[in-house]
């Protein structure tokens, strides 16, 4: 939900008391109708997370050291977010070796539905060594030419 200032909230309540509809308040203030309806019903925003009562997240990490706010205004604990990302990486590991069959199929013009970045880079290396242009490689791998250029840059950096 959008955060609004106290002055805007007072304006919403004053216009509502004057008998304006949510649509007319929206036209006057530019605030969304959903937000207007919430404030009209008596919505008050929740208190900030760092109060005397709440000095840590639900997993026990201390505030305000780990408290961050993302671009949407949501608060999160950095340690909890790191742990969540690690759990995801543990559940979805990258394959140790690229699939050679998938690479061979891609080189011969019959790529599988999806190649991993490592497999695509290897296929680009083999096709570049074969003398194909960027557009031909992209057509064969069924990807964008910029993807092929990026893979070539990655290969040059690794060499």
From TrEMBL:
Report the superkingdom from the record: Bacteria
Question: What SUPFAM superfamilies does the record point to?
Answer: C-terminal effector domain of the bipartite response regulators
* GO BP, sorted A to Z: regulation of DNA-templated transcription
Region (Disordered): which ranges?
41-65
Q: What is a single molecular function from GO for this protein? A: DNA binding
Q: What is this protein called?
A: Uncharacterized protein
Origin organism of this chain? Streptomyces alboflavus
Its organism's taxonomic lineage begins at: Bacteria, Bacillati, Actinomycetota, Actinomycetes, Kitasatosporales
